Amino acid sequence: MAIMNTREQKSSEIASLAEKFGRAKAAFLVDFKGMTVEQVTDLRKKLVTAESEMKVVRNTLALRALGEHPESKTALEKSLTGNNAIVFAFGEAPVTAKALSDFAKNVEILQLKAGVMEGSALNKAGINALANLPSKDVLRAQFLGVLNAPASKFVRTLNAVPSGFARVLGAQRDKLGGA
After folding, report:
1. Extents of the domains making up the chain
2. The sheet that has 111-117: what strands, in order across it?
3. Which of 28, 32, 44, 133 could bond to 115 as cystine, CB 3.0-4.6 Å?
4. pTM, to two decimals
5. What is the CA radius of gyration of the chain?
6. Given pLDDT bands bounded at 50, 70 and 90, which one contains residue 1?
């Protein structure tokens, strides 16, 4: 009976992982070996604020769950060795990558191994590059600035002609007033 329960637990865990891989905008593989319980708890708290979740799983179960997501499987399967945790980014992927990158700078034991975002594989450098991207709000503001620039320049150009004319008239008035 214990074997049946274990199989049921494993199949339930695989289904849960497959659902999380399907729902996540990105997934990151980290090696947490050597971290204290307090450090892991602190990391989990930081990830919750980034709309992310860290799950420690057996590599074989993760591979089975990735069977339903072939693009993610090819990106992560080579790195699924040793002690791993999978960080699922349900919110913005750059926010989660930044949280992981910043935590890895402070706690050097945490190793960023690999990641996958929209079917594309990410190595450690790719995760760090993703972490350095500005947030959506900053990008939107920059985009609006780019869209607004031609209109602003057009208005300044239209305003330059009357302003120049007014300066010429003022100079002429001063010249005639002084004579």
Report:
1. 2-133, 136-179
2. 52-56, 85-89, 26-31, 111-117, 120-122
3. 28
4. 0.70
5. 28
6. very low
Residue environment code for 105-144, b if the CB has 16+ CB neighbours within 10 A, otherwise e? eebeebbbbbbbbeeebbeeebbbebbeeeeeeeeeeeee
pLDDT digits (tens, 9 = 90+) for 121-144: 888 888 888 888 877 777 788 888
Pairing outcome for strands 26-31 and 111-117:
antiparallel
Helix (H) or strand (E) holding 9: helix 2-23
pLDDT tens-digit map of 56-75 = 888 888 888 888 787 877 77
The domain defined by 2-133 carries CATH number 3.30.70.1730: yes
In three-state form (DSSP H/G/I as H, E/B as E, the rest C), the secondary structure along 15-47 is HHHHHHHHHCCEEEEEECCCCCHHHHHHHHHHH
Residue in this structure with the two tokens 């949280």, named with its chain if needed: 99
> 82 — phi, psi (to 5°)?
80, -160
> How is residue 107 written in tokens?
């706690």
Measured CA to CA, the distance from residue 112 to residue 128 in angstroms comes to 9
Residue type, position 45, single letter = K
Beta bridge partners of 87: 28, 54
Q: How far apart are CA 69 and CA 116, in angstroms?
A: 11
